[in-house]
Design a protein that fits this description.
The protein has no helices and ten strands. By secondary structure, the chain is mainly beta. The protein has one domain (10-119): Domain of unknown function (DUF427) (Metal Binding Protein, Guanine Nucleotide Exchange Factor, Chain A). The strands form two sheets. The protein has a seven-stranded antiparallel beta sheet with strand order 1-4-5-9-8-7-6, with no helix packed on it. The radius of gyration is 14 Å and the shape is globular.
Length: 121
């Protein structure tokens, strides 16, 4: 486990806006409780509470990755009306203490869903 610091900062902050994710013409997540995670020089990622996503459209996969700063990520495939996008969603079921706020949240790859919108609340 690596600890975020000046050489690799990570900040998790509440997003005051509404975040909506669509795929296959359907809203799969819609939240006013998203968290914005800014990690080093990477683009900001929106983490949406599972309760604000339509979990019936998400199928767990066997794919996992490891981040030395955040922990073990598990993945989901999105399926809407016969259209699927593989491993388009990830989550850290037991994130490392430095990012414990993202527990119970989902993140979406922008290039694997139709749209991730950040809208006025």
């Amino acid at each position: 486990m690596k600890i975020p610091g000046p050489d690799h900062p990570i900040a998790v902050t509440p997003n005051k806006n509404r975040v909506r994710v669509t795929f296959g013409g359907k809203v799969i997540a819609d939240s006013t409780r998203a968290l914005s995670l800014k990690e080093a020089s990477y683009p900001v990622v929106q983490y949406i509470p599972r309760g604000d996503a339509d979990m019936s459209l998400l199928q767990p996969t066997s794919h996992h990755t490891h981040c030395p700063y955040k922990g073990e990520a598990s993945y989901f495939t999105v399926a809407v009306d016969g259209k699927t996008t593989q491993n388009a969603v990830w989550s850290y079921p037991t994130p490392f203490p430095a990012v414990k706020e993202i527990e119970g949240h989902l993140a979406f790859y922008p290039d694997r869903v139709d749209k991730i919108e950040v809208l006025p609340a």
